Amino acid sequence: MKVKVSAIKVRQWLPEWEKVDWDPEQHRAQPPQNFMVLSMKAGDLRRLSAIYRRQADGVLPRTEDLGIQRRHDKKRSEEIKEFVKFGYPYCDLTEHNKQSGEHETLRKPGWLPSGIVINILKPSDSRMNRTVNPVDLIEVEDDPNNSSFATLSIPDVCNKEWEPQGVAPIEVIDGQHRLWAFDDNSFAPDFEMPVIAFHGLDISWQAYLFWSINIKPVKINTSLAFDMYPLLRAEDWLEKEGHKVYKEARAQELVETLWIHPLSPWKNRIDMLATPMNPYVRQAAWIRTLISSFIKPADARKSTGGLFGEVRNASSDVLPWNRAQQASFLICTGKALLDAIKSSSLEWIELLREDHRDDFLDPEFEPAMFGKKTFLNTDQGIRALWLAVNDIFICKLNEWKLFEWLPVDEFGSSGEDGVTREIENLENQKIAEKILALGQSLATFDWRTSTAKGLSDEQVLIRKGFKGSGGYVDLKRLLLEHITATCSDEEVADAAMTALKY
Predict the structure, then answer these.
(1) SS3 129
(2) How many CA atoms lie within 13 A of 46 on its CB side?
(3) Whether residue 216 is found in the same domain as residue 149
(4) What is the mean pLDDT of residues 37-46?
(5) Backbone φ and ψ of 460, nearest 5°
(6) Domain ranges, residue 359
(7) Strand pairing report for 116-120 and 192-199
(8) DSSP class of residue 18?
(9) In whole angstroms, what is the distance from residue 124 CA to residue 130 CA?
(10) Among the residues of 444-467, which ranges form H helices?
(11) What HEC string does 154-222 produce?
(12) Is residue 226 part of a domain?
């Protein structure tokens, strides 16, 4: 059964737009020259766009395409719901004041006149290699009698059991928090929303539209936007306009978390202020490292891309981990490496420990990781380490279910408690065992610098060559070769071998 909905066609097209670089390969195919304006019940629109309440077990319906689905702030949607019920300022009163009956004159209509911006998928539109089931498709037909109108044939969602059988037929570009306010089917079932509907709008243009609506005019927190809409991390037009907020700000946020979080191996072991005589790697070097590894831009012909930025694969999916998840991944990986080194008695580790007997007043200090003669406490070493880790996990995005790791907090609290919860969450994911195996393999690599004891002349010469950009690459290559040969987990070893080809 399909329901007919009338829509007004709005033509917005200029001759100058013909000069736009329409590129289907970059998910920027030329769009229709008009969009549509219509009215739809909020609850129906929510169901058609597969915005469902997540169950307690954390299972995310596969109809929610992670490349499109935005992060959700429950508190914001609850505030909108209260506003719809009571208007302002009654919606902001405490529950006690509401029940007192003394403020009834403050009730007002809770209008939501701003349009929900959506995209209606066409039969050929693919998301995560899946399309809309034919029975769920929304058909758009021009009115033969009036070119300014169109008719949409929409699945009848009045049936409470209805759910999309494949990808949801609608993607919400802007207005998800307003729709989440109607998550309860019993709340305002007839409340209608104005809707601005595009038909077959490519996903990169959706990212651009989200940007132009939410960020460019009103200057909201830009770094936050990259968590709400992960696809923005991969937009090259942001790079060309000199936009570096995500890469630089996010890298700095992550470094600060590594420096301050109590579970981080690098707590108080990063030189945050370029202090003279500080024995640790400077913050600036850490930031450059994270940008060049996890947040680096991707060229599908030359690079594997960054795990926290653009991901290289056929559908240009973007891994939607928020800041807390990104930080917890780095912390857990570092902790796996440190724990493996601490429990080891390999010759190179013992030799480094001999040089730091006086430093053992700090029980957490491990010379093989934080001493003066280990690459793990140098710019070259951390760069090679994180380049290798990034490339290994990029190679196994789907096999290790990286897209299935969902945040504990849907909006992603980035404070200390939020990162701690995500660390605990990560320990229950498939990749936890991969991180552990990788850490053990990394700990058997000889990280000594050229000035360390016990090295042969050839080993010293090799280590002296790890300078400049070429040194990063050479050290990473040796590290990946070592993981390929020594890792006990065959999948991790295979990933390292694959990464060597790039």
Answers:
(1) coil
(2) 26
(3) yes
(4) 91
(5) -65, -45
(6) 240-499
(7) parallel
(8) G
(9) 10
(10) 457-464
(11) EECCCCCCCCCCCCCCEEEEECHHHHHCCCCCCCCCCCEEEEEEEECCCHHHHHHHHHHHHCCCCCCCH
(12) no
